[in-house]
């Protein structure tokens, strides 16, 4: 019973994925949650209120003017005691109403009047999802700290294929369990670096690498979910900032170093996931380098500072976690790197498996030995890493 006694409002909007909300309701109740249901009028066309009432064991709400709530304050009352609102499925129109702060129906009024976190699981046709208006609304919701779960890509009810399918009920349940679960890093300040760096060759060219930033962003998200105050120093990537995370964009290794140096002192944990360029161009050109037919071009490289090693050698360092992407002999290189950089914890993966992929397979190395986390989506591995490092932090002084 992972959600024992948790008070959740499950909102349904109009979409064929509403049938998955019936399953979600069943899973929530099975996990011990107390589930109140609110449906838009359109949602009642896809699943009946009777179905949702039977599954939740409670009356279903769908009318802003419902006289069952005393004082006609249903739009406030029904969300006041909730610990979380989950809207699944969330249609394109509902996301638009939410982003605009509308309160024209019961469910959007409840969302507007809430005091608790809000999680939405979008579900719509691929064209509707990719439409600039929807993307604008989703970005606005993210900026407002609304949590967006999915959507996934795949076959759609309309016969098309692409992004827009609602994620499965079990996956939404997992997101809810994480949101409402114990906060292993409550009160901790966590600094994370992510993504590649870019080292200029001339004003238009750079030396960089293929890091997507996905693993570092997943670590930042998992740390925030665990209750930490998270700052993410990010190289150039095209990823959305995880909700509740403060992000600082940098481009060169030196900029990343400066940003980390300015923030490392007040931190409890430093997780260095960035693929920092080991070298930068010494003879960087002030003007665009012209092609000299037949002649080669020599770039002279000089070493960049090792950001992680610097932090780990601070007089009172935060708890430092390094990442190592190796192409072979994973365990051997990981152990050497952990010792050399003086790290309590190192996460190692094979570079060829991790780069750009949604999944990864990680092994942790600490004083107690090796801990394989297996192969899984990066966010799941990040959650395991966060749980592991939280268990290694010194106990709070009383
Ligand atoms: O030595 P290597 O680059 O493989 O070590 C990887 C770890 O060191 C990663 O955690 C990476 O973020 C960090 N690193 C760093 N500064 C560098 C190079 C690597 O912080 N200049």
Concise summary:
This protein has 398 residues and is of the alpha/beta class.
Number of domains: 2
Strand content: 25-35%
Looking at the structure, the CATH topology of the largest domain is Rossmann fold
- Tell me the distance between the termini: 31 Å
CATH architecture of the largest domain: 3-Layer(aba) Sandwich
Tell me the Rg in angstroms: 24 Å
What is the average per-residue confidence, as pLDDT, rounded to a whole number? Answer: 93
Report the major sheet. Answer: 8 strands, mixed
Spans of at least 5 consecutive residues with low confidence: none
Shape: globular
Unique bound compounds: cytidine-5'-monophosphate
Structural class: alpha/beta
| Helix count, DSSP H or I runs of 4 or more residues | 15
In percent, how helical is the residue content? Answer: 25-40%
How many beta-strand segments?
20
Description:
The structure is a single chain. This protein is of the alpha/beta class and 398 residues long. The chain has 2 domains: 7-180, 3-Layer(aba) Sandwich (Rossmann fold); 189-397, CoaB-like (Rossmann fold), CATH 3.40.50.10300. It is built from 15 helices and 20 strands. A hairpin with a 5-residue loop joins strand 7 and strand 8 (161-165). Helix 10 crosses helix 15. The two termini are 31 Å apart. The model has no long low-confidence stretch (mean pLDDT 93). It binds cytidine-5'-monophosphate. Cytidine-5'-monophosphate is lined by residues 193, 253, 272, 274, 276, 278, 304, 306-308, 322-324, 337.
SSE arrangement:
Blueprint: E1 7-12, H1 18-30, E2 34-39, H2 43-46, H3 49-56, E3 60-61, H4 74-80, E4 84-90, H5 92-100, H6 106-112, E5 118-122, H7 126-130, H8 132-143, E6 147-148, E7 152-155, E8 161-165, H9 169-180, E9 189-194, E10 199-202, E11 205-207, H10 214-225, E12 229-234, E13 246-249, H11 253-264, E14 269-272, E15 279-281, E16 301-303, H12 307-312, E17 319-326, H13 330-340, E18 345-350, H14 351-354, E19 359-366, E20 369-377, H15 378-392
Parallel strand pairs: 1-2, 1-4, 2-3, 4-5, 5-6, 9-12, 9-14, 12-13, 14-17, 17-18
Antiparallel strand pairs: 7-8, 10-11, 15-16, 18-19, 19-20
């Amino acid at each position: 019973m992972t959600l024992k006694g948790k008070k959740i409002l499950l909102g349904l909007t109009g979409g064929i994925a509403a049938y998955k909300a019936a399953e979600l309701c069943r899973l929530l109740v099975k996990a011990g949650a107390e589930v109140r249901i609110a449906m838009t009028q359109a949602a009642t066309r896809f699943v009946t209120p009777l179905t949702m009432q039977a599954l939740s064991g409670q009356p279903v709400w769908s009318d802003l003017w419902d006289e069952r709530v005393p004082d006609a304050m249903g739009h406030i009352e029904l969300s006041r005691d909730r610990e979380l609102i989950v809207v699944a499925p969330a249609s394109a129109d509902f996301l638009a109403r939410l982003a605009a702060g509308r309160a024209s129906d019961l469910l959007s009024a409840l969302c507007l009047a809430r005091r608790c976190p809000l999680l939405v699981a979008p579900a719509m046709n691929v064209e509707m999802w990719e439409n600039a208006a929807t993307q604008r609304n989703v970005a606005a919701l993210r900026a407002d700290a609304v949590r967006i779960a999915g959507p996934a890509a795949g076959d759609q009810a309309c016969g098309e294929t692409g992004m827009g399918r609602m994620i499965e009920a079990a996956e939404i349940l997992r997101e809810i369990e994480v949101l409402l679960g114990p906060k292993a890093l409550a009160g901790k300040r966590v600094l994370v670096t992510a993504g590649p760096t870019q080292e200029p060759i001339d004003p238009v060219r750079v030396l960089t690498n293929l890091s997507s930033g996905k693993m570092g962003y997943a670590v930042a998200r998992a740390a925030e979910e665990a209750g930490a105050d998270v700052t993410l120093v990010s190289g150039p990537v095209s990823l959305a900032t995880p909700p509740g995370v403060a992000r600082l964009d940098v481009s060169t290794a030196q900029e990343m170093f400066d940003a980390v140096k300015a923030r490392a002192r007040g931190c409890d944990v430093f997780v260095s996931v960035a693929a920092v360029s080991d070298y930068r161009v010494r003879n960087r050109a002030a003007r665009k380098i012209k092609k000299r037919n037949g002649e080669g071009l020599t770039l002279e490289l000089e070493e960049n500072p090792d950001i992680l090693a610097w932090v780990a050698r601070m007089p009172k360092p935060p708890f430092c976690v390094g990442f190592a992407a190796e192409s072979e002999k994973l365990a051997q290189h990981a152990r050497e790197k952990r010792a050399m950089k003086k790290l309590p914890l190192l996460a190692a993966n094979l570079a060829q498996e991790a780069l750009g992929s949604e999944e990864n397979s990680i092994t942790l190395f600490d004083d107690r030995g090796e801990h394989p986390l297996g192969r899984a989506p990066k966010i799941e591995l990040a959650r395991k890493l966060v749980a592991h490092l939280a268990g290694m932090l010194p106990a709070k002084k009383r």
